[in-house]
Amino acid sequence: MDQSRLGIAEVTFHLPNMGTILELRGLEKTYKGGVTALNGVDLSINRGEIFALLGPNGAGKTTLIGAVCGLVRPTGGMIEVFGKDMAKSWKDVRRRIGLVPQELSFDIFDKVIRQVRYSRGMFGCAPDEARIEEVLRSLSLWDKRDQQIRSLSGGMKRRVMIAKALAHDPELLFLDEPTAGVDVELRRDMWRQIDMLRERGVTIILTTHYIEEAEEMADRVGVINRGEILLVDDKNAIMAKLGRTEAQFTLADPLTEIPAAIASYPLHLEDAGHALVYRGGDGTGKGKREVAELAQLMVRNGLTFTGLETRESTLEDIFVDLVQDRPEVVAAA
């Protein structure tokens, strides 16, 4: 980001400190009736990073966020935030945390600015009209400050929720599906705001159904399913470790089985034998090399193909494989 937008002094002040800001050890939550939402979760979040927590519905994402924000009481394990035990220092820790929940929660008959002021005061912060204005302007809400919330669009209501979460200047911010139900333009504005928060040193943990956003914005990615963390790593490391190459050869003549000359490659037939599909590699370029070798071997052995399409797996492909319990992916993770 252009430092002139913030001012040199502000950038210097807000540069993130290194170290762990949140530590979860053996975190468990079992609801009445025996449903286990969190099953021994271990997770460390670094100060100043954007961390994306991905998982299908019911995976435990919202329960995990609720436990850290004091909305859900864990049945086991430990939460340490800012170096303090959450159970012993809840009040001090909670005022330094911001939350934008999935569900919209405010008095729809109240004015935008009053709701944001109320949120700041609720956390014990002194009144600061300049800061309130700054937050509202950053979210394109300043010109709507005196409107009743009920008159706003769904996307603007979501912005009010973010403004409420930012009003007390949290150091750790949770965004639970922040762009759900928001149009493309508003989504882009929100991500610009998130990028600005990162520049100011705010640590951000988000859940999202838009995995391409996690791939674009997050420093690290975690995948949770059935209350257990399956994978946590730098997104580039995930792509290198679990990425795959897929190639489809369109055959001139259909095959009933894979010829012995190429049977050692990870291949299968589709489209009644008219398509030979390769899925392999390891994110290091091995897949591309093997596809090139395959093409040469097929030509040498008289296997004519009329088309070739290749693609590299995305973070979404890897996520889907993980939550569908594909054994080769889970083993690699």
Query: Measured on Cα atoms, how large is the radius of gyration?
Result: 24 Å
Gross morphology: elongated
For the record, what CATH class of the largest domain applies? Alpha Beta
* Content of β-strand: 25-35%
What spatial order of strands do you see in the largest sheet? 6-7-8-3-9-10
Indicate the multimeric state: single chain
Named at the architecture level, the CATH assignment of the largest domain is: 3-Layer(aba) Sandwich
Give the fraction of residues assigned to helices. Answer: 25-40%
**Termini, distance in Å?**
33 Å
Unreliable stretches: 1-17, 327-332
The sequence of SSEs as H and E is HEEEHEEHEHHHEHEHEEHEEEHEHH
InterPro entries: AAA+_ATPase (IPR003593), ABC_transporter-like_ATP-bd (IPR003439), ABC_transporter-like_CS (IPR017871), ABC_transporter_ATP-binding (IPR050763), P-loop_NTPase (IPR027417)
Protein name: Multidrug ABC transporter ATP-binding protein
Keywords: ATP-binding, Nucleotide-binding, Transport
Pfam families: ABC_tran
Please, could you describe this protein's structure?
- With 333 residues, the protein is of the alpha/beta class.
- It has two domains: 237 residues, 3-Layer(aba) Sandwich (Rossmann fold), CATH 3.40.50.300; 69 residues, 2-Layer Sandwich (Alpha-Beta Plaits), CATH 3.30.70.
- Helices cover 35% and strands 26% of the residues.
- It has twelve helices and 14 strands.
- A six-stranded mixed sheet has the order 6-7-8-3-9-10, sandwiched between helices. A four-stranded antiparallel sheet has the order 2-1-4-5, covered by helices on one side.
- Helix 4 runs parallel beside helix 6.
- It is elongated and about 80 Å long.
- InterPro entries: AAA+_ATPase, ABC_transporter-like_ATP-bd, ABC_transporter-like_CS, ABC_transporter_ATP-binding, P-loop_NTPase.
- Keywords: ATP-binding, Nucleotide-binding, Transport.
- GO terms for molecular function: ATP binding; ATP hydrolysis activity.
- This is Multidrug ABC transporter ATP-binding protein.
